[in-house]
């Protein structure tokens, strides 16, 4: 992301502080766009639609954080790019495997799941769950490769694009298609947007490193960094569950309308926290 000249004078001189400032700034702009669009979205979609989105986002929020079993956290650690490239390939492979597993489980138990959580309108859109997990998982892994390469400007740009892509999708589909489909598709697009940009950047700059990827080395790094799936994935999963359980319980006890009103309030209140936390 190119920084305008008049803004550069306000950035810290330290490279680390400057990188943090860029990420915080892009996240702040993205969050501002989301908040400013909320009055428009609430006039297009009903509270029930937002309740369906909240349950859908809860499913993604629980599974997507462990889509790669947290192997992406190991990407900045190896000294050799070839080793890191095998970690990247391993992480992306696990994302694909988990996506297929979730898709199979959704096909098998999807009907029962929407009945349990009292979100009947979600039934027609369950096919978006594995797509959302794959998109979010890919972006999560590729962004850690970008962190390894200190490509903070590109991460900042993709974060801004995610907010813009999500809002534009939700607004445009909201006025043309009835129901929550616009909100759900916007959520999926918003989480996945930027993956292609980061993937192209990685291939263009590190093509030689990726040629060193092979199954035996992928197994070797899987064993070398096994503590991430053994420990970090479980703690992350339980933390995600603790955040998403209120949404599921509200939907189960009171239905999607009350859940939608809760999610709208929470969406505004969490903005200051996510501004720094996500960056």
Task: Please describe what this structure looks like.
With 279 residues, the protein is mainly alpha-helical. The chain is built from twelve helices and no strands. It has helices at residues 5-8, 15-44, 47-63, 81-116, 128-148, 152-174, 181-192, 195-210, 215-224, 227-254, 256-269, 271-277. α3 packs across α11 and α5 (128-148) packs across α8. The longest helix has 36 residues, at 81-116. The two termini are 15 Å apart. The model has no long low-confidence stretch (mean pLDDT 88).
The amount of helix comes to over 70%
Pattern of helices and strands? HHHHHHHHHHHH
Straight-line N-to-C gap: 15 Å
Shape: globular
Low-confidence stretches at least 5 residues in length (pLDDT < 50)?
A: none
Q: Mean pLDDT, rounded to whole units? A: 88
What is this entry, summarized?
The protein has 279 residues and is mainly alpha-helical.
Helices and strands in order:
Blueprint: H1 5-8, H2 15-44, H3 47-63, H4 81-116, H5 128-148, H6 152-174, H7 181-192, H8 195-210, H9 215-224, H10 227-254, H11 256-269, H12 271-277
Helix pairs in contact: 2-6, 2-12, 3-5, 3-10, 3-11, 4-5, 4-8, 4-9, 5-7, 5-8, 6-7, 10-11
């Amino acid at each position: 992301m190119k920084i305008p000249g008049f803004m550069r004078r306000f950035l810290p001189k330290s490279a680390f502080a400057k990188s943090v400032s860029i990420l915080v700034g892009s996240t702040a702009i993205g969050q501002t766009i989301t908040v400013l669009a909320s009055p428009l979205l609430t006039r297009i979609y009903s509270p029930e639609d937002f309740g369906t989105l909240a349950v859908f986002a809860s499913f993604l929020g629980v599974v997507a954080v462990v889509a790669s079993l947290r192997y992406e956290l190991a990407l900045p650690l190896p000294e050799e790019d070839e080793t890191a490239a095998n970690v990247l390939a391993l992480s992306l492979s696990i994302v694909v495997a988990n996506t297929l597993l979730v898709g199979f489980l959704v096909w098998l138990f999807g009907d029962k799941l929407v009945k349990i959580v009292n979100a009947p309108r979600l039934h027609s859109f369950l096919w978006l769950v594995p797509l959302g997990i794959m998109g979010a998982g890919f972006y999560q892994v590729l962004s850690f490769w970008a962190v390894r390469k200190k490509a903070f400007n590109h991460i900042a740009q993709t974060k801004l694009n995610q907010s813009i892509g999500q809002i534009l999708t939700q607004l445009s589909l909201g006025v043309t298609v009835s129901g929550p489909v616009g909100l759900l598709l916007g959520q999926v697009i918003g989480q996945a947007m930027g993956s292609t940009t980061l993937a192209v950047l990685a291939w263009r700059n590190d093509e030689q490193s990726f040629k060193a990827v092979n199954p035996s080395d992928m197994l070797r790094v899987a064993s070398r960094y096994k503590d991430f799936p053994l420990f970090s994935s479980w703690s992350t999963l339980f933390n995600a569950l603790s955040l998403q359980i209120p949404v599921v319980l509200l939907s189960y006890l009171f239905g999607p309308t009350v859940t939608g009103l809760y999610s709208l309030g929470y969406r505004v209140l969490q903005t200051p926290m996510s501004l720094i936390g996500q960056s």
